[in-house]
From TrEMBL:
<protein>
    <recommendedName>
        <fullName>N-acetyltransferase domain-containing protein</fullName>
    </recommendedName>
</protein>
<feature type="domain" description="N-acetyltransferase">
    <location>
        <begin position="14"/>
        <end position="166"/>
    </location>
</feature>
<dbReference type="GO" id="GO:0005737">
    <property type="term" value="C:cytoplasm"/>
</dbReference>
<dbReference type="InterPro" id="IPR016181">
    <property type="entry name" value="Acyl_CoA_acyltransferase"/>
</dbReference>
<dbReference type="GO" id="GO:1905502">
    <property type="term" value="F:acetyl-CoA binding"/>
</dbReference>
<dbReference type="InterPro" id="IPR000182">
    <property type="entry name" value="GNAT_dom"/>
</dbReference>
<dbReference type="GO" id="GO:0008080">
    <property type="term" value="F:N-acetyltransferase activity"/>
</dbReference>
<dbReference type="Pfam" id="PF00583">
    <property type="entry name" value="Acetyltransf_1"/>
</dbReference>
<dbReference type="InterPro" id="IPR039840">
    <property type="entry name" value="NAA80"/>
</dbReference>
């Protein structure tokens, strides 16, 4: 396990498409929570680009190696070009409760609201409502994240949440 970064070893949040050497670690991290084939994960991560979709990883460097500690993917919402869907947010089990998820989400939000100039972030979760609520997310109706029609996804297992861009 990589120790918590010190002053000289900060966490970094970087897009995976600029750090292809981290793909295998990222695949292992995501699959530790939601198992899928290596090929399916690789295909998803390889679709990351400057526009959407974009996969971000939070890393720590101890001087010898860079460790992937967290991941989040930003996907477009065809029915709403001013919003983004954040998915596959995962923090390494042994690093949970250390502020890593909060840091990752802050960087994701900055990218969405400041760089991409989007108006709204949507996400859904099964068991992390309290975490996202602490970050300012509010409950909302389910949205259609796949097609161009604004019909609602009716999944009952997931809780949908949203956060708007800060007022200027």
């Amino acid at each position: 396990m990589t120790p918590p970064p010190s002053e000289g070893q900060p966490y970094k949040v970087v897009p995976i498409h600029k750090h292809r050497e981290l793909m295998d670690q990222c695949i292992a991290l995501i699959n530790s929570e939601w198992p899928r084939s290596y090929t399916a994960r690789l295909w998803s991560l390889e679709s990351s680009k400057e526009t959407l979709p974009t996969s971000f990883v939070l890393t720590a460097d101890d001087g010898k190696e860079t460790a992937v500690l967290a991941h989040a993917k930003l996907s477009p919402i065809p029915a709403d070009p001013h919003a983004v869907f954040v998915e596959s947010v995962v923090v390494a089990r042994e690093r949970r409760g250390q502020g890593i998820g909060r840091l990752l989400m802050r960087e994701v939000e900055n990218h969405c609201f400041k760089t991409l100039r989007l108006d709204r972030i949507y996400l859904c979760t099964i068991d992390q409502q309290a975490f996202y609520a602490k970050l300012g997310y509010e409950l909302c109706k389910a949205i259609n994240i796949f097609g161009s029609r604004p019909t609602f996804n009716q999944s009952t297992k997931k809780t949908w949440m949203t956060k708007g861009a800060p007022s200027k």
